[in-house]
Amino acid sequence: MSELYIAIEEFEHQVDCFCPDADHVNILHFQKGDFIEVTPDRKYTFLGWYALVVINGQQAFYMAIEDIERYFRNEYISSQLDIDLKINYLHYKIDQDLESGNRDSFAENSRKLSEICSLKEELEYYIAKAI
Predict the structure, then answer these.
(1) If DSSP codes are grouped into helix, strand and coil, which group holds residue 31?
(2) Whole-angstrom Cα distance, residue 36 to residue 93?
(3) Residues 25 and 37: beta-carbon distance below 8 Å
(4) What is the pLDDT of residues 44-76, one digit of tens each?
């Protein structure tokens, strides 16, 4: 079963080349809201383990599992579960801001909540469309 992630930050990824000469460089630019489907198709090369990744249901290539983990750890990508946890946390922070009367923090957390809820809607629509 594939794992689905959504880009929550813009970032670039240099695609590893397995060509003998390896003179060319391909850099992918991920935008906020791009969908990254990590398929169960894996392969091992002299560079390590790679997973077949499909971007927005169109472009497929092998990405190093180390890179996927690094993007997740650095919060460039997020799973649906992690988005739900972040939404829950932001609701908690907003409640705290309301109790303390902190307008600046309330405005910032409300903005973050709106942004993450928008990404969640995109992710849910993508999942529903794929089914």
Answers:
(1) coil
(2) 29
(3) no
(4) 988 899 999 999 999 999 999 999 999 999 999
Instruction: Give 53's strand partners.
Output: 38, 61
Burial of 112 (0-12, 13-18, 19+ CB in 10 A): middle
Structure tokens at 86: 């972040």
* Rg of the chain, C-alpha, whole Å: 18
Amino acid at 111: R
In residues, how long is the chain?
131
**pTM (2 d.p.):** 0.87
Q: Which regions of 1-131 does DSSP assign to beta strands (E)?
A: 3-7, 11-15, 26-30, 35-45, 48-55, 59-64, 77-79
CB crowding 32-65: b at 16 or more within 10 Å, else e: eebbbbbeeeeeeeeeeebbbbbbeeeeeebbbe
Say which residue the tokens 């999942």 belong to: 127
